[in-house]
Amino acid sequence: MISLKNVDVFYGKIHALRRASLHVRRGEIVALIGANGAGKTTLLSTISGLLRPAPGGRIDLAPATGGACPGLRGAGSAAKSGGDGGAKPAFAAERIDLTRRSPDRIVRLGVSHVPEGRQVWGPMSVADNILLGSYCRTGRAARAQAAEDMAELYRMFPVLEERSDQMAGTLSGGEQQMLAIARALMARPRLLLLDEPGMGLAPTVTREIFRHIVDLRDRFELTVLLVEQNARSALQIADRGYVLETGRIVLQGPAEELLANRDVQRAYLGRDLDS
Amino acid sequence: MYFEPELECIDRAELEQLQLERLQSTLYRVSRNVPLYRRRFEEIDFDPENIRSLDDIRRLPFTTKQDLRDNYPYGLFAVPLREIVRLHASSGTTGKATVVGYTTNDVRRWGRLAARVLAAAGLTRDDLLQVAFNYSLFTGGFGLHYGAEALGASVIPSSGGNDRRQVQIIEDYRTTALACTPSYALHLSDVMDEMGVQKKGLALKWGLFGGEPWSEPMRREIEERLGVKATDNYGVSEIMGPGVAGECLEQNGLHVNEDHFLFEIIDPKTLDPVAEGETGELVVTTLTKEGFPMVRFRTGDLTHLVPGPCACGRTFRRIGRIIGRSDDMLIIKGVNVFPSQVEAVLLDIEGADPHFRIEIEREGRLDKATLFLEASENLFTDSMREARELIERIKRRLASELSVGFEVVLVGRKTLERSHGKTARVVDRRAL
Predict the structure, then answer these.
(1) Domain with residues A2-37+53-232, CATH architecture
(2) Most exposed: A53, A138, A208, B181, by fewest CB within 10 Å?
(3) Which of B25, B104, B288 sits opposite A260 (nearest CB)?
(4) Residue in B with minimal Cα distance to A261
């Protein structure tokens, strides 16, 4: 779905991301773990075009398959017909280089970013927040479709429908996170970038959010790149993971291998190995 | 069949991305955790960040058996010993074997890679695999054993030796797949004939052979006599036992598990890459090993790249069967032996520069190694009893230190042929 090759990002003189190479296959959940300041958010923001990488690196997005952008329902049917379980070419011949595209163009290409701290518009209603997520879909047919998608999202997150007229700022943290995800889904993404969805939430609420993420992948074959400080819960739902340390990817592998890796356990899973 | 189709048939561009990611993090880890690599990288002013493509690996120095010996026993481990759950050994060039460590993840991955090899060779979960490789310090039977378990097949860990019992197990347990050295497979076939076993009645279908060089005529003979489909598989004890590469049912080269091992084929003299399809020495870089990663390890094994895609659908490139060694290592009964190891034992016993010759031949199907030793002045004795004792002592030492039995023959001084003052130390009469 997406691959990064040798991506460097600088904040002034600070080398925030060093030769990062990473890929996510279609339908995968990939976790990006690491300490504060390791470069996780930088990496996500670089994919979504909010930050510009230094020249030399590449960020390639696989082109949409099957014509129409496989959003909510579209992807659902694609998942059924494409469920051969065999090797799918994740990189088709023409890949789309994202490094010089604007953020809104990247959204239109099928990449939605759920930012750290949700960033919902507090004074606006829940419904308006969700609708704003479809800003890239113009034309009468697309708007009709957006209304259908919204109905589907309400089925998935009933609490948002109950509170659709409430101001978003009055929602609980977990509800705001669901709202931020729903808003991102309104752009019918193929790839969802999730930045710390569990931040500041009670463990049970985090678990619920994570259940929704798995559900989205399973039902719509959505591809997810997930940044999380809570490494254990992220790796528990992820297929694979990458470990970032001071801007470098120092380790990568299947999630169960990372969970069993002592370096990861010591540094990120809070396990005291000497006891 | 495939064990992990999404990886075994991976798109090449995607594979290269995966290899690059894994190479970058492997190099970063060894530069941080293994003093030898840190020093070497500093010497050439190399930062793992400078690896931008897979070809950049050519800028790095090779790792040799000598490096392993210099860092004996644990110097090349990339994790603390407490994280190692398994130790195996590989033969060193002199005296001591080198030590190779595996973490929990390494052992588990080893099983999965061996399962791919087994699936490529025809096995499914319905098969009964008899592993007649030794289970010991050397990796031998372990890889395929784990592989069969990962695949869900049944394993019969019969280990090596005890020929008649092996045959009885094949018959009674209805073994469907046999893993051993190719010469041992032919030997077992002879034993079956002696025992009057009706081979038509056996359940054998698959044969997985490795551990020593063999040939197409041997493959045909094994297939005809045992009624199996015979495939080749490859492991390097410094890298990982069986599981590095394996043949599919096309029987035309061994698919290297390229998502875990980056391989190059070099000219052992110039150290440059050989032209595609030319024979050279296999060099392997591990991409996922945690305990004992190796960067550009010179295996000493001579092979070539089999060009073109394979009809089986796997996209991993293939190497041809191993045709020999770029150094003087011998493989006797599947065990790696260097003449320098023999020399070290003799030096220790004799205390002087020994003149000796190793002759290897096939006695029936099996290797037979004989050591001819010139009696030096230190050893000179008229007593038959003393001579016999000396021979026994040498035999015991060789057997315990090299894990291979030798016949030992004392010969008179200056009776071994010399060229340029040096004895030709090895005569290999085996025809494959």
Answers:
(1) 3-Layer(aba) Sandwich (3.40)
(2) A138
(3) B104
(4) B105
Mutation to test the A interface, candidates B105, B110, B112, most A Cβ within 10 Å: B105
The answer to whether residue B354 scores a pLDDT higher than 90 is: no
Does the bond joining A55 to the residue before it have cis omega, within 30 degrees of 0? no
Work out the pLDDT band at A72, boundaries 50, 70, 90: low
Q: Cβ-count burial of A185 within 10 angstroms (0-12 exposed, 13-18 middle, 19+ buried)? A: buried
- Which chain A residues are within 8 Å of B109, Cβ to Cβ? 257
CB-based contact B21 A252, cutoff 8 Å: yes
pLDDT tens digits for range B258-287: 999 999 999 999 999 999 999 999 999 999
**For chain B, which domains are there?**
81-327 (3.40.50.12780), 335-428 (3.30.300.30)
Reduced to 3 states (helix: H, G, I; strand: E, B; else coil), residue B13 is helix
Average pLDDT over residues B168-192: 96
Classify residue A45 by its DSSP letter.
H
Residue of B nearest to A95 (CA): B13
Query: Which residue in chain B is spatially nearest to A84 when comparing CA positions?
Result: B6
Q: Does the distance separating the beta carbons of B5 and A85 come in below 8 Å?
A: yes
In terms of residues, how long is chain B? 432
Whether the ipTM is more than 0.95: the answer is no
Is residue B86 within 8 Å of B105, Cβ to Cβ?
no
State the first-to-last Cα distance of chain B, in angstroms, to the nearest integer.
30
Q: How many CB pairs under 8 A join A and B?
A: 66
Say yes or no for a CB contact (<8 Å) between B104 and A19.
no
- Tens-digit pLDDT profile for residues A162-200: 999 999 999 999 999 999 999 999 999 999 999 999 888
pLDDT in tens, A15-35: 999 999 999 999 999 999 998
